[in-house]
Amino acid sequence: MTLKGQTLAAKTPDAPEHQTARASRGFDFSHFASRWGTVAAAVIIFIAFALGNERFVSIDNLSNVLVQISVLMVISSGLTVAVASGEFDLSIGQAASLAGVLVAGMLVLSQLSVPVAIAVALASGIVIGLVNGLLVTLLRIPSLIATLAMGPIALGVNYAYTGGDSIYAQMPDSFYAIAKGKVLGIVPMPIVIALITVFVFYVLLNRTRLGRSVIATGANIQAARLSGIKVNRARVTALVLSAAGAALGGVMLTARLGTGQSGAGDAYLMDSLTAVFLGMTAFKPGRATIQGTLVGVVIIGMLDNGLNLVGAPFYLQNIVRGVVMVAAVGLAVLRGEIRFFR
Fold this sequence. Notes:
Elements: E1 8-10, H1 16-24, H2 29-52, H3 59-68, H4 70-84, H5 92-108, H6 114-137, H7 143-162, E2 167-168, H8 173-180, E3 182-183, E4 187-188, H9 189-207, H10 209-219, H11 221-226, H12 231-257, E5 259-260, H13 268-279, H14 290-309, H15 314-334, E6 338-340
Antiparallel strand pairs: 1-6, 2-5, 3-4
Helix pairs in contact: 2-14, 4-9, 4-10, 4-12, 4-13, 4-14, 5-6, 5-7, 5-12, 6-7, 6-12, 8-12, 9-10, 10-12, 13-14, 13-15, 14-15
């Protein structure tokens, strides 16, 4: 998987004869650990916190964990598409923040209806993704640089619109329902939105021609081009979907906070990258997958919630998260499943 200026490559799958030989030898622990080690780690983390604090496994707390990670789930799913195409998107945090203040401004300052305000916010993400894609494909700027530059631009637009101030005012109840509503009076709306988003991106990547083009482009852009795939279209589309996912996450975040805050979404960049790279060590090592990212998001959510319940200092959450990411990705690199700077 080429990332313009650096390479993130997956290990070549075993040949059929090697798979047959491995099957004849019986259980292959290294193969099992390669595909399922991250999932097993998630289970171990769950059991550890369940034993450490009985409140961790309560229905209310587990529901709270899912609600808390819903925004991260949405933003990370979009980023997964970009990484699957071989690109990085470092502007998702600022894209989420901009969409958050725009939806608040459209509702409070412009008095637009909820659907129109949300549409404007999502459009901002699409525009950011489109500009990122054009910079990468037309000007051939590495996505790492193009999206890194787009972040401050989005931040500048954000401050120009708000003056650097948060937008505090009562918003329509139908908008707050995005964060506080419940489907059938049971399932919190943020969880429903996140699961629908994950499902849509999963189907897009795994069951559509566009998704196959995105994955092929990320795996080997030259081979994809020679096979007739319009690789630039795939790359632009992936970056648009990444920014659109970030914008949707920003809308959800504003509904949860009840205000449009200029930097509310910025922190989601590192969390999303962590989730995606953790996911690349599971199921299909070396490849960005929606199901893998979902596991990464759940791990992050359990760590944050579990450490809070056991009374760990707040700063320990970031330390543990970083250690987990380094350990998981480091093992994958040592096994040759992910290679940087080839």
